[in-house]
């Protein structure tokens, strides 16, 4: 299944095509992933082009499993603002108590979010970032 997902994510598509159809197909593929597929994805994701990484980050809330969470955490170590924002947006759908401790163990994530909020985040991104921060700091 990983090979099928890789082909889909590597395909040159329009933005509309990706969000209308591609992400749904990717979610279906991810739901059929085996342990080996998850390991392959985990091992390969950081070696992929940025657009590929953005696409996968958008789809990684299918099962909200440990593999998806860890891949998103790895992708947060990016200089690409759009990828970072997509990862944060996707992480908002995770059961926050499970991931809260892990996120709090990485203060650089919260520092970067606060820096983005203070400087350059566009209004929709600010809403996403603020919502994430409030979920992390909620009891």
Question: What's this model, at a glance?
Answer:
This protein has one domain: Leucine-rich Repeat Variant (Alpha Horseshoe).
* Tally of distinct domains: 1
Main sheet properties: none
Class in CATH? Mainly Alpha
The gross shape turns out to be globular
Which percent band covers the strand fraction?
Answer: under 5%
Order of helices and strands: HHHHHHHHH
Organism: Bacillus xiamenensis
Protein name: Immunity protein 30 domain-containing protein
Would you mind describing this structure in some detail?
- With 139 residues, the protein is an all-alpha fold.
- The chain has a single domain, classed as Leucine-rich Repeat Variant (Alpha Horseshoe).
- It has helices at residues 2-10, 15-31, 35-44, 50-59, 66-75, 81-91, 96-104, 107-118, 123-137.
- It starts with a helix and ends with a helix.
What is the strand and helix layout of this fold?
Blueprint lengths: L1 H9 L4 H17 L3 H10 L5 H10 L6 H10 L5 H11 L4 H9 L2 H12 L4 H15 L2
Task: Throw out a few tags for this protein.
Leucine-rich Repeat Variant, mainly alpha, 139 residues, 0% strand
